[in-house]
Automatic annotation (TrEMBL):
A cysteine desulfhydrase that generates hydrogen sulfide, H(2)S. The H(2)S produced by this enzyme modulates the balance between respiration and glycolysis, and contributes to redox homeostasis. Probably eliminates toxic levels of Cys (which can induce oxidative stress). InterPro entries: Cds1, Cys_Synth/Cystath_Beta-Synth, TrpB-like_PALP, TrpB-like_PALP_sf. This is L-cysteine desulfhydrase Cds1. It catalyses: L-cysteine + H2O = hydrogen sulfide + pyruvate + NH4(+) + H(+).
Length: 393
């Protein structure tokens, strides 16, 4: 495809050290006074932490799926299937870490609500953990969030509070927490801090453990997508800590400022609208997004993301959300580069959440037409690559 059809060609390698994505972040919203030496509170806290840690023992590991490629290429492509978590998405890991972080810092207390700004999947997972420890939960989210996600938040006992402008989620969530005496979780600030990136069966450690007996046990590339930026930060830090020869690529959707901010070393970069690919892409550079640990970024058109998840269903019989498609599109382009220069090795990306949450959007031809999205050229490019081993020009 030529440049006019394939804006996904926007891509860049590491521009070198740049400024941090943001300042240290806001001070956590204070909760109503509680006597933290009170035996009743200490007992509640110990039980809450136990319940969250028990969930980790039950659900921390997830499957690593192979995407079928011709054996003779000598390249293996895997998807880490995070949709098998109890709340059905990659955000289950983040929510668990955020709750342990908030509990152990004394920010979450009995009966006080937890409030979060979220485009959906994090809120589903946080609603689950709030229900697990018995505290109220409120999700501040765009009115365009999929109906299935709002149903799941309510299923787990949470309440949805809508905003028309996604850029106003943060302030609205902080205000609700202040008014209720609750805690604003603020995933966009604390995602990279709450996760234990050195190990403890985090997503990176799990991937390397599962690849141990594969023919290419150390992946050449791991491709992630960014909503908070916490997952890419965790994987990249772990890779450096363990001294693996793996590079990190972050795939960014069409209406997101992360690519431009990273490429230009601009922590003040902003976007004009919210992302159509739920769960990833942001209108501002988030504090948890860490440009300095990323080797490469790709800008992926929304139509390419959707074509990729439909190709995934044809390849392995599994539906996934749009963020999976964003990462898969970039992973396939990296595989094409490797095949083109004769490199052997493995590439890993993420299956972030199930496609059943998006039947009325990414899997709806009517929605695509309404959005003016033509996935045909991108679907054709993927099909041609898988058939010939060459990415169309």
């Amino acid at each position: 495809m030529n440049g006019t059809v394939d804006p996904g060609a926007a891509d860049a390698a590491d521009p070198g050290p740049g400024p941090a994505a943001s300042a240290a972040g806001p001070t956590p919203t204070p909760t109503l006074d509680v006597d933290r030496s009170d035996p009743a509170y200490r007992a509640w806290l110990a039980e809450a932490v136990r319940k969250v840690q028990a969930d980790a023992n039950r659900s921390a590991d997830t499957h690593l799926l192979r995407f079928p490629l011709p054996e003779e290429w000598g390249i293996d492509l895997y998807l880490k299937d995070e949709s098998t978590h109890p709340t059905g998405s990659l955000k289950h890991r983040l929510a668990r870490s955020l709750f342990l972080h908030g509990l152990c810092n004394g920010w979450i207390r009995p009966e006080a609500p937890v409030v979060e700004a979220s485009s959906g999947s994090t809120a589903v997972s946080e609603a689950y953990f709030a229900g697990l420890i018995g505290v109220p939960f409120v999700a501040v989210m765009p009115r365009t969030t999929s109906r299935e996600k709002t149903r799941l938040i309510e299923f787990h006992g949470g309440r949805c509070h809508y905003v028309d402008d996604p850029r106003k989620m943060y302030a609205e969530a902080a205000l609700l927490a202040e008014r209720s005496g609750g805690h604003y979780m603020d995933q966009f600030t604390y995602a990279e801090r709450a996760t234990d990136w050195r190990g403890n069966n985090n997503i990176a450690e799990s991937v390397y453990s599962q690849l141990r007996r594969e023919r290419h046990p150390v992946p050449a590339w791991i491709v992630a997508t960014a909503g908070t930026g916490g997952t890419s930060a965790t994987i990249a830090r772990y890779v450096r800590y363990m001294q693996h020869d793996t590079r990190i690529c972050v795939a960014d959707p069409e209406y997101s400022c992360f690519f431009d901010g990273w490429r230009n070393g601009d922590p003040t970069a902003t976007g004009e609208r919210g992302s159509r690919i739920e769960g990833i892409g942001r209108p501002r550079m988030e504090p948890s997004f860490m440009p300095g640990v990323i080797d490469r970024m790709m800008k992926v058109p929304d139509a390419a993301s959707i074509a990729a998840v439909r190709a995934l269903e044809q390849a392995i019989g599994r539906r996934a959300g749009g963020s999976t498609g964003t990462g898969l599109w970039s992973a396939l382009k990296i595989v094409a580069e490797m095949a083109g220069n004769g490199s052997k090795g493995s590439v890993v990306t993420l299956l972030c959440d199930p496609g059943e949450r998006y039947l009325d959007t990414y899997y709806s031809d009517a929605w695509l037409a309404e959005q003016g999205l033509d996935i045909g050229p991108y679907a054709a490019a993927i099909a041609a690559f898988l058939a010939t081993g060459h990415w169309p020009d």
